[in-house]
Amino acid sequence: MNPWSGYALQDFIPFTADIYFRLLERMGEAFWPLQVLTMALGALAVVLALKDRGRLACLLIAPVWAFVGFAFFVQRYAELNWAGGYLGYVFYGQAILLLVTAAAGLGFDKASRRRPSTVLGAVIALAGLIGLPFMVTLTAGSWFQAEVFGIHPDPTAVVTLGLAMIILRGWVLGLIATIPAIWLLISALTLSVLEAPGAILVFTILAVGLFGLVWKSVERLSAG
Amino acid sequence: MNNGFTRRQCLKLLGGGLAASVMPSIRLLAANNDERLRKTFSGDQTLPVIGLGTWRTFNVGTDPQLLDDRADIVRAFFERGGGMIDSSPMYGSAPDVMGHALQQHGTPDSLFSAEKVWSPAGGSAEEQVTDLKSRWQVDRFDLVQVHNLTDWREHLAVLREMKAEGRVGHIGITTSHGRRHEAFEEIMASEDIDFVQLTYNITHREVEDRLLPLAEEKGIAVIANRPYDGGSLIRDLKDRDALLPDWAGAECGCSTWAEFLLKFIVSHPAVTCAIPATTQVAHLRENMRAGLKPMPSASTREKMVRYIESL
Question: Measured between alpha carbons, how far is A204 from A128 in angstroms, rounded to an integer?
Answer without folding.
Answer: 12
